Amino acid sequence: MKLTDFPNEILKNVVANIPLNSDLARVTLVSHRFKNLTEPLLYRIVHLDAEPLEECPVGFIPTLKRTDQLIATLKARPELGRYTTAFSLRVTHFPWYQSYPQISIIRRMPGLRKLSYDPPAIHGGGTPTECKDLTAQRFDFSHVTNHYDEDGGRLWLELGVPLEIVAKHLWGPSVRKVQAEKLFFTDKFEHEHWLDQRRIRAGLSAVEDLRFLNCCPRIHGDSVTAFLNAVIHLRCFVFEIESPWEPLMVPNDPAHEVDLRPALLAHLSTIEELALSTTGHALRNYQPVQSPGSFVQWTALKRLAVPYATLSHAMLHEVLPPQLEELQLERLNCCEEKPAGPEDDLVLFRELAKNKEVCVPGLKRLIWWLQHPSAQDPNDHNLSQLSNVEGLALETFKNVGVRFEWISTPFFKDTPFGQRLYEW
């Protein structure tokens, strides 16, 4: 029996198991029949690496060969764009950020559901009206923040344009998730036009999942608060910064005051997952942080990741909601006037285990995250005692049905919560 003798339904299942787009493209060359079967899969997920056709001097925009080819193809055969449900774009040349033709591409993908920009164009506009089914958007500004010196983008950093770019995309009718990586917050920004008072009062944005990952140190509180106030019902909020918590919660300079608590409290009945974290360069001396308060009244909260210092050193069972299922605590001894030792940690663990059934009966997993020892004092005698504490904690929580994990890493993205929340 020949392969061509099988019905289309079986052949569709066969080509659907081809993992590489390059192999799918070869299948389209077999015959018109295989081309018709394969093209919907080939264009279902489109990733475009926008690279220059040739090197050119600074100030000139290189020819975008792959981009031009994709636009030309979608113009000639608009049915191909209707197959696309996920599109990711990676741009590597600074001048492109200013005027990359991203809208010309995604307008030809009306069935788009997931969209990723690395990074988006400065003047790219918001979500096209043609994309009525778009539910998730990701914006990665790593290339901008890593290369702005050599590419001439310092002015952009000082203006804080990425806030404006992200704000534009909160208002899509079906958008539920917005994820932004490597943002930089400054006191000069243009996002008020998109997060204006009328919209904030009305709470028009239907976004339920808002993630600010690996943000740069310069923080301006009003900008973050404006995003939180612009959402109706928030179910997931992640805010990770590369700076100490002191300027975030208890600033010495009122101009840079950031207190997310009032804005977050508006969502305490809907938030199911909350992650507030520092990473990498956060391990240097700073003042004690202000507690965000108890989470007992957060009636929907099931997954929580916070530095332990933000809980004002309270006993854990006193500040956690009863329905909480997973807890990741970040231990930052460098922010404490009198750093806690492993024996203090063990007291916390035993008290939580003792009161677990009464106060936090839903707890199934506890992750104790110690910032990487290489970032701390190598002579810290506490580090040598951690292995003993880990063994005792494992036994303590095993008896009450809680999975305990002790981890050591400098980066939030390498923690269990971070690995899941960074996924796209």
Automatic annotation (TrEMBL):
**InterPro entries hit by this protein:** F-box_dom
PROSITE patterns xrefs? FBOX
Domain spans labelled F-box? 1-46
Q: What protein am I looking at?
A: F-box domain-containing protein
